[in-house]
């Protein structure tokens, strides 16, 4: 079953930069897909069009049978709870603890006073602890995020993205700031999240070898267009 589909998607920034032009590809439910390409290829723009952090200029993006460009404000909020996002620079709140950052993942849709004040239910907290345990952060739960290593910070980012039980994770260069060891840990967690939790993973990477190691499928992007769409093995032949 197709979970995500790009149909003739283009994105123009101002009048000069065409970041995406006529992009077409699809992602199946449960797939692990890497988007690869050099810096400036349009990977980040592509990813951000999915949950409408950026609006595409034309074309259609379908997620779970709904056209994301047609969603109203409330529907868009709901969509964002179903799509977790992970960033290169983690985007954590440094002065807060690990557990507070994870629970913060819920603020996105909790516009209630309880959400703003950080009052969470027992179940919500228990789930956050569980996720931190899965990610090997049980010793870090009450530490401030600015005391963590980069790899630990990214694992907090992953827990925060998972706290809403998303259907899909979008990861924008999740290992670009990490050393090889931490990168491996992060990629293995993402792979497990896909195969054990059944969450579809779409990840932007500029390291081709990493993409080939972990992905079911690779979408190669260059200058805003798709130049490869197929299994990792096919990429070797092409080169
Ligand atoms: P990648 O993630 O592959 O490095 P990006 O999607 O960040 O590529 O960028 C694609 C192109 O769009 C680049 O030429 C970049 O300079 C341009 N671009 C990205 N964001 C903006 C923006 N907010 N305003 C103008 N141009 C942008
Ligand atoms: P409350 O004060 O609202 O009861 P708690 O923070 O005491 O919230 O705990 C909520 C739930 O989170 C508990 O029922 C427990 O299952 C779990 N929990 C609390 N602290 C930890 C911890 N350090 N490690 C693992 N699970 C915990």
Automatic annotation (TrEMBL):
Pfam families: ABC_tran. InterPro entries: AAA+_ATPase, ABC_transporter-like_ATP-bd, ABC_transporter-like_CS, ABC_transpr_PhnC, MetN_ABC_transporter-like, P-loop_NTPase. The keyword Chloroplast does not apply. Residues 4-239 form the ABC transporter domain. Keywords: ATP-binding, Cell membrane, Membrane, Nucleotide-binding, Phosphonate transport, Translocase, Transport. One of its GO terms (molecular function) is ATP binding. It comes from Paenibacillus agaridevorans. This is Phosphonate ABC transporter ATP-binding protein. One of its GO terms (cellular component) is membrane. Transmembrane segments: none annotated. The keyword Nucleotide-binding applies. NCBIfam families: ABC_phnC.
């Amino acid at each position: 079953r197709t979970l995500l589909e790009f149909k003739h998607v283009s994105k123009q920034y101002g009048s000069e930069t065409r970041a995406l032009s006529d992009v077409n590809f699809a992602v199946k439910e449960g797939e692990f897909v890497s988007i690869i390409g050099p810096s400036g290829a349009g990977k980040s723009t592509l990813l951000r069009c999915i949950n409408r952090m950026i609006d595409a200029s034309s074309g259609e993006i379908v997620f779970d049978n709904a056209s994301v460009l047609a969603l109203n404000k409330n529907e868009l909020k709901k969509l964002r709870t179903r799509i977790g996002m992970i960033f290169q620079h983690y985007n954590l709140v440094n002065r807060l603890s690990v557990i507070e950052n994870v629970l913060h993942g819920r603020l996105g849709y909790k516009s209630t006073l309880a959400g703003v004040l950080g009052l969470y239910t027992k179940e919500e907290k228990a789930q956050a602890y569980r996720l931190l345990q899965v990610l090997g952060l049980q010793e870090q739960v009450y530490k401030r995020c600015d005391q963590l290593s980069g790899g630990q910070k990214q694992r907090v980012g992953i827990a925060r993205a998972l706290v809403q039980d998303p259907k899909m994770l979008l990861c924008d260069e999740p290992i670009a700031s990490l050393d090889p060891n931490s990168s491996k840990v992060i990629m293995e967690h993402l792979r497990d999240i896909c195969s054990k939790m059944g969450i579809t993973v779409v990840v932007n990477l500029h390291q081709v070898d990493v993409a080939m190691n972990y992905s079911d499928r690779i979408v190669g992007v260059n200058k805003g267009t798709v130049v490869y769409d197929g299994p990792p093995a096919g990429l070797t032949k092409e080169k």
